[in-house]
Input
Amino acid sequence: MLRVLLCDDDELFLGRVKSRVEAFLNSQEEKFEILAHTDTSLITDRELELCDLALLDVDLATPEDDGIALARRLRAFRRDTVLIFVTNYVEYAPAGYEVNAFRYILKKDLDAVLSQYLKEALAKLAAEKETFRLSVEGRYLDLRLDEILYFEIKHRTIQVYQNAGTDHGKQCFSFQGSLSALEIQLEQRGFLRVHSNYLVNMRHIYQFGCRGLQLSDGTLLRVSEKMYAENKKKYMNWMGQL
Output
């Protein structure tokens, strides 16, 4: 079941958003549950943990607990929630990079773009359920693509590092293969060859500099300075498609 969180301090507008989201999801034959709030203080941690898709007003009535603050709370529980900001003010858009916002909708454009953005959000959620299959000690193992941090080549053996969540930490599996072949296989699915030794999942890039990058779990990796400009462009283009 798809769990959707809506938050806007304008009750009439919130009802309008809810009715349109319901109509769209029904048209897609999705099973869903929608939670709608006008007060962020009533949103529980459990609701955030279960949230797959969130449409949040940026400029809420309480400045210290606006949509960006709520998005930070959400990201503490779920990095994979698809987050759409709905706002009257386009100048808030840069703040969304901090919380990995998927799309921005100006309230005046809601009817024109909401269905398309929701369609793209469902496609993104489906893509994040994709798996990568590898053979480990004679058995097949399927890893969720969105949980893979990066691949590393060591002594002709590929090591894949998976972020298995706070309860399990980072896990590593080794298998035989070619990092170049993996790059071809996965480049259209959000992976970037940042160094001859590393193929990184761009979903987990936290900071990207000319001499190194930091992943969402704190891992630091070297990058190719020669390829930095081209790779940073690829990364920014990919971020713009989210």
Notes: The two ends are 22 Å apart (CA to CA). The chain has two domains: 2-127, 131-241. Helices lie at 11-27, 45-50, 67-77, 110-127, 179-186, 228-241.
